[in-house]
Inverse folding.
């Protein structure tokens, strides 16, 4: 009897523990509202591509256009409807536009009544909540200027740090939607100041994701990797992206910027990332092929990663840079293991022609991206191991010269 009761108690404990564990769906519900809908910005990017580019990337622009217009019409996004129609050089349907504008007016009038009623009969909290609803509605219909004005007015009436942070996150998302870097950076700075005053755990993690997302969009992959990796196990920012997309961004950023030791610890052996990689075979291949020095497979995976980058509105403009730097990284990794290699061996290792590898290495050596030299006669690539002590010495000398020049300029100003 005791054994049976013990087993039953253990079973009950396990069931209760499982029920209380946060599920992926539960975490998504805990995220902020998807306002604005960033998938609309992605669709606008896809239909802006040339037909040739879209075909190469496997994008069905006609289907994307249909989906986009359906979202705009069902959401009564009058302002966006006019903008997208202009972008597509598509005539406006006046009856559709009038219906949208009428719906927008009705909804805004209704919210204004709620704000007026809250100001007259309720407390500050209810007033703020009604104002937030207006902010969200204006943002959702694509009226950026009106949304920003309302957000600033709402911020003036907000006293708690957490609610202020939510409004700054809203403005950051609006900036990401409109590609307004000035708006993004201003609100990231404000959010960082508020976090220092006492932001909670969830908002601290959310800020890291927002910071990393913006850093990635401006080619600061190092900061992106740092912030993304810090939040892999605590990610709840589904208003920005899905968890799978977040892991893809984390891998893309980390592969370029982490040294081998850090990459092993945080990505290759990272339990949270590995849990998702079975759903992302391309990214698994991308990591493993470079890590295991399977360079021919890595080049194939990199070509597919390039397509992923070109399809993404935040990464498309960095695709060429990223692929070039990853090729440099793979060449450097191979050259670090040898003092001399034949061009033929390198070509075979990467699954390319000798002509291609010769041209690649010559270009990267000339720009200083690779520490090596090529013996054209012997067909040998000689690796030049960087002298760290000498490099540090040269750096000190250079910085010393700069400091002395500044002191001289300052002394002249003081003398005058």
């Amino acid at each position: 009897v005791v054994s049976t009761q013990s087993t039953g108690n253990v079973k009950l404990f396990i069931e209760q523990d499982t029920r209380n564990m946060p599920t992926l769906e539960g975490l998504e519900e805990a995220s902020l509202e998807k306002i604005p809908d960033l998938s609309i910005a992605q669709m606008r990017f896809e239909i802006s591509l040339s037909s040739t580019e879209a075909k190469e990337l496997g994008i069905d622009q006609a289907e994307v256009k249909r989906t986009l217009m359906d979202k705009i019409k069902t959401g009564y996004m009058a302002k966006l409807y006019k903008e997208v129609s202009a972008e597509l050089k598509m005539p406006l349907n006046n009856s559709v536009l009038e219906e949208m504008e009428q719906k927008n007016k009705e909804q805004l009038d209704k919210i204004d009544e709620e704000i007026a009623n809250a100001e007259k009969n309720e407390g500050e909290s209810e007033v703020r909540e009604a104002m937030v609803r207006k902010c969200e509605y204006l943002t959702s219909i694509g009226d950026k200027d009106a949304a920003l004005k309302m957000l600033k007015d709402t911020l003036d009436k907000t006293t708690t740090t957490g609610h202020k942070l939510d409004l700054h996150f809203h403005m950051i998302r609006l900036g990401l939607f409109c590609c307004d870097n000035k708006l993004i950076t201003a609100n990231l700075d404000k959010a960082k100041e508020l976090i220092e005053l006492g932001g909670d755990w969830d908002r601290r993690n959310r800020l890291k994701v927002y910071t990393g997302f913006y850093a990635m969009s401006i080619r600061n992959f190092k900061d992106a990797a740092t912030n993304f990796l810090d939040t892999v196990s605590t990610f709840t920012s589904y208003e920005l992206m899905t968890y799978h997309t977040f892991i893809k961004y984390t891998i893309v950023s980390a592969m370029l910027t982490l040294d081998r030791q850090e990459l092993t610890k945080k990505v290759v052996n990272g339990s949270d990332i590995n849990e998702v990689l079975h759903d992302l075979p391309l990214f698994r291949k991308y990591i493993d092929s470079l890590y295991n020095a399977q360079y021919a497979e890595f080049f194939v995976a990199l070509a597919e990663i390039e397509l992923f980058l070109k399809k993404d509105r935040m990464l498309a403009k960095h695709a060429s840079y990223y692929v070039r730097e990853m090729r440099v990284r793979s060449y450097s990794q191979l050259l670090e293991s040898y003092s001399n290699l034949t061009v033929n061996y390198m070509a075979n290792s990467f699954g390319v022609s000798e002509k291609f590898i010769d041209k690649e290495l010559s270009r990267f050596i000339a720009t200083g991206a690779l520490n090596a030299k090529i013996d054209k006669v012997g067909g040998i690539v000689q690796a030049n191991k960087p002298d760290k002590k000498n490099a540090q010495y040269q750096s000190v000398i250079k910085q010393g010269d700069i400091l002395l020049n500044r002191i001289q300029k300052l002394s002249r100003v003081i003398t005058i």
